[in-house]
Every structure is written in C-alpha cells, then in structure tokens.
Amino acid sequence: MVHALSEIRRVLIPNGILIDLRPVLDRWTVEVASARATSQTGRVTDFPVGLKDDAAANQAMAESESKGWFIREREEFFPFVYSWDSANELEEWIAEEWEDFVALDEETRRATRSAWALADADARVQLNLKMLITRWRVGGELEGG
Amino acid sequence: MTVQKDAQGNEKKFLHEFADFRNQRVLEIGCGEGRLTRHYAHASSLTVGLDSDPDALRVALIESPHEAKHKSAFINAQAEHLPFSKNKFDIAALAWSL
C-alpha cells in the first residue's frame, strides 16, 4: 500500500490532490425502510480480516503522512446506503459479495425478515455503510530525492 | 437481484465538496465498472481509470458518458506500478481501493 501511495505521489503534480474514499467497518446497521417508516433491525458482525484491512489502510496513510508525502486537509464520514427488495436479497448479497468481511447474526436475520414481512408494500431492506472521505495534498520533496 | 446503491447521492455530493474536478486531469485507482468515474468525468479534462479487472474495465468503457468518451481511458494496471510519467495528474482518487 505504501508503495502504491509513493507511485500516486510521483504521478501527481506538486500541490496535487489525493482523494481517499472507502467504506470502513463499524458494525453497519440493517434497516427496513418504507416511505412511511424506517426501523433498525440489527447490525452486521465485522470479521477480523476486514478490520485488519481497514487498519492497514489507515497505517499506510499515516506512514505517507509521516514521510511528508501527503498532508491531510479535510476528512469526513458519511452514510452510503445499499438497499434491496427483500431480506433474502440482502442475505444473498452478503453471502456472495461480502462473506469475508461481514455477516448477519441469527437474531438480526430473523428481525429483518420479520420487519420486512410486516412492513408496507414499498419497504426495502437497507444496509448503512460508513464511508470515509479524506482530501490529501501532495507534500514537499520526496524522501531521499 | 435489484440492489440500489447510494440513492441519496451522498458519495457524489461529498466527492464534489472535496475536490473541484473541472478541467483537471484525474487518475482514479480501482475504478471498477466506473460508477464513481461517472460522477466527475464530464467535468475533467482527462480521466484515466485504473483497475486490475479487465471485465470491469470493459463495462466502465461502455458505460462512460458520451460527452466524456473522447477524454477518458481505462487501463488494466496496478497502483504499485503506475504506467505514467511524473507530474501527469492534478487529482488522484482511491475509489474504495486502499
């Protein structure tokens, strides 16, 4: 990762900008939402491999900051919502796309299915991802040249 | 399966709050199928999307906005070895890829 950041710095102009945009695991909330009401049914469970990836990304950025490659200018979190037509589709998505990173425990699975079955016809099942966006400015001279 | 992503448009909103893409040369690392690219490629002067998945890059190219096609390129490469000369871009974006 640090080597990739060094490469990015190389191809950016002096004073150029790096935008780092990524989801961070934080036991994302599961909801059932219709136009009339939204109810939280639980949270996903984060797996260690995903948490380790987040830590490695943070570490790489911290290292590039300490080397003076990039200067942190602004940082914020914001929600990014995935939504599906049914609780089954959420479960399928997690099993197929995110099985290494997050899981639904049995209680959340049951609560979500139940809430969706009882909700209004327009209800969708949602997962609220926590997104991190950071703007970095290219720093001074490269270390060692 | 019908999945909707970011119906509220937060990602696009924050991306444009954090950087002004107008007339900028932009390198996007991990562009995938170009979902994020489509948020700004119309405004930039040059957009280069990078990904290690050639199938995703084909989709990115096909779905690239018509008005941005002549100033966009999608390249199969890794961030550890960027095939560009020094000082080539004004903005780089790590798109869900660090």
As residue ranges, the low-confidence spans of chain A are none
Helix content of chain A: 25-40%
Mean residue pLDDT of chain B: 94
What Rg of chain B is obtained from the alpha carbons, in whole angstroms?
Answer: 13 Å
Mean of residue pLDDT values of chain A? 94
- Rg over C-alpha atoms of chain A, rounded to the nearest angstrom: 19 Å
Order of helices and strands of chain A: HEEEHEHEHE
Largest interface: A-B, 38 and 37 residues
Secondary structural class of chain A = alpha+beta
Q: Brief overview, please?
A:
The complex is a heterodimer of chains A (145) and B (98). Chain A is α+β, with helices and mostly antiparallel strands and 145 residues long.
Task: Please give a structural write-up.
- With 145 residues, chain A is an alpha+beta fold.
- Chain A has one domain.
- Chain A has helices at 2-11, 48-66, 87-97, 106-118, and strands at 12-33, 38-43, 45-46, 70-84, 102-103, 124-138.
- In chain A, the strands form 2 sheets. A 4-stranded antiparallel beta sheet of chain A has the order 2-1-6-4. Chain A has a two-stranded antiparallel sheet with strand order 3-5.
- The longest helix of chain B is centred in the first third of the chain and has 9 residues, at 10-18.
- The N and C termini of chain B lie far apart (28 Å).
- In chain B, 41% of the residues are buried.
Write the layout of secondary structure elements.
The complex is a heterodimer of chains A (145) and B (98).
Chain A lengths: L1 H10 E22 L4 E6 L1 E2 L1 H19 L3 E15 L2 H11 L4 E2 L2 H13 L5 E15 L7
Antiparallel strand pairs in A: 1-2, 1-6, 3-5, 4-6
Chain B lengths: L2 E3 L4 H9 L6 E5 L16 E6 L2 H9 L9 E5 L12 E7 L3
Parallel strand pairs in B: 2-3, 2-5, 3-4
